[in-house]
Amino acid sequence: DEEDDADSKLTADEKALWEKIRREEERVKTIEDTRKSLPVFQYRDQLIEAVKKYPVLIVVGQTGSGKTTQLPQYLYEAGFDKGPLGKEVARKDGQKFKIGCTQPRRVAATAVASRVSDEVGTRVGDRVGYSIRFDDRTSEKTVIKYMTDGMLLREFMSDPDLSEYSVMMVDEAHERTLHTDILLGLLKELSSERPEFRLLISSATMDSEKFSAYFNDAPIFNVPGRRFPVSIHYTMQPEANYLHAATTTVFQIHFSQKEGDILVFLTGQDEIETMAANLRATCEKLAGQMERQLIVCPIYANLPQEQQKLIFMKTPANARKVVLATNIAETSLTIDGIANVIDCGFVKEDRYSPVTGIQSLAVVPCSRASADQRAGRAGRTGPGKCFRLYTRWSYMNEMAATPTPEILRTNLSGVVLQMESLGITDLLHFDFLDSPSPEALIKALEQLYSLGALNEKGELTWTGAKMAELPCDPMLARCLLASSSLNCCTEVVSVISMLEESNSIFSGRTSRKAGENPSAQPSAATSAEKFRTRADARLGGDHLTLLEIWNQFATNGFSPQWCRDNFIQYRAMNRARNVRNQLARLCRKMNLYGEEEIEEQNGADSMIRMESMSRDERDRLKVRIMKSFARGFFANAAKLSRSGDYYQTLKKHQPVYVHPSSALFRMVPPPKYVIYNELMLTSKEFMRNCMPVSERWLGEYAPHYYRSSGGK
Ligand code: ADP
Ligand code: MG
Q1: Ligand 1 atom closest to Cα of 40?
Q2: Per-residue pLDDT tens for 182-220?
């Protein structure tokens, strides 16, 4: 017919071009429609006016109303990149101004930047970018910048006026992370010094009055959202195993309800991976009986970004999506189409006791406010259901009303060091939203003093200033500095990069192909065992085991095949490699590589210099590596108990146990002294990533610390 005729006159190239244009127009139209359909859109002009009028504005709105994705775009469209208040004012360096937006979590910063890039129609790192630790995706062109709150705190150190920004939005302020709380104090001060600077504090419905009062009665802008009723279902009995209960509930929903996706709240990556594997295995078994397919979508920070994106995909007809998330999905990420929420009722939290100085990660009941927020996720697009895997009694009696802000329950030494380096020395009188206890502050100062970051007068030392420059915990930063004088920065950088991944390196679950019988293959556990029982790895505990794995990975050309052959997670190794590259670059910039190392490296950071060493040289190098860690982690030292089956912390004699995943687990004979990287509280206090140390080192590095416990 006619149309066909007209079309056939076009060349293939032209046809492709027109098709591309048509699709782009369609895309823009859908995006515009979606943007206009969000609740904040109706308030666009009022919001822009309010930001121009008030130096500090609190924005409150139901999650999913468009605060995070839209507000920075509105400000950009209103010209805030040209100058504060949308007026043309040149920046000193002639650059454009940035519109910043902080997020408590890495996943949110990257996911939102990717979404907003799509909406704006540029690639991530172009007009819209993000910056998270060890991953900066911004360029000179970037005007809308999403970042973690921790990264903005670092930016304060290099540019205390935030002169690149005309406006900053502190998002998810109700989460009250440690970094957000410190930022609020710094930004409050900045806002009185830079009257043209604009500050937005955005939060879910809780706490808005408190933020307003803190910012001298700043106005609150309320974005009304829609919300449908959600029916709540409790269990009759406490659940012994909530992972199992959650899996069962997923299938009950799947077999009894026609539509609606499912969102499951769990506490961490481990649980999410386990449950994803359980669900997939059960799906395979039940494949014949299922009317519609079940699509399992896990989400956590370490998941590759293409896979993270899956949670936002529209669910195909005749299928159902199950999203497995942590409390990241409570407010930071909104997934459309969720009609069912399954809530385990727990959260993983950092706990720190200023009395014992013991910090540990523990899974604890979440707050009622969190539980209600989680339930609310089921009622965004229609009436929903929330299945709580705990009893009504626990909800009423075992859960706190609101979460405790992180600043009141965590180790403060990292932020205290950063504040000291910003020249904020009178911490007791700093204007905190919630002041940490004097004990917690003193404990942090003591720890920094014992690490040599502060002197007797509490002033920042040269060492402290260097430590503050490093984007890691003060104890790890101290190891790096020690390794610099001990000529083993190369290796310590490797170990530190591996430590963060140590939990994922041996996990064999996800590397196995679907349908493969696990018992037919040597398991990941055997492979872990192989590395852990090497004679010299055992001498150096988990730290040198990790180094050995890294070195082999590097020697084998970072090969995925080598990882498969050894049942090691290539993805985890790749992440460690990325962190290592960044950390090594920073160490070079800070001149941390020892003279001996530089000679051996010919200027480059050869990662595997151990290979060419003699046995003797290698042993001496290993001792220096271990000493570097002892220098940073003497506070985490523990001594073998008399019975020999557990350890006691040197400082307070608390019982602690070697984690079963450690190279030192059931080692014969057990080392008399160990240091650990972290404590995990599960059934007991477990030390994860342990290294034997000599008593002499402890006495040498921390005489003041161990005065009372007999260190020389
Ligand atoms: P708020 O910050 O008010 O909670 P958001 O701006 O995060 O709201 O979300 C607005 C809308 O954008 C929601 O409908 C959400 O589903 C969608 N959205 C947000 N992030 C993404 C993403 N990464 N991919 C796809 N859609 C997204
Ligand atoms: Mg948001």
Answers
A1: 3
A2: 999 999 999 999 999 999 999 887 689 999 999 999 999
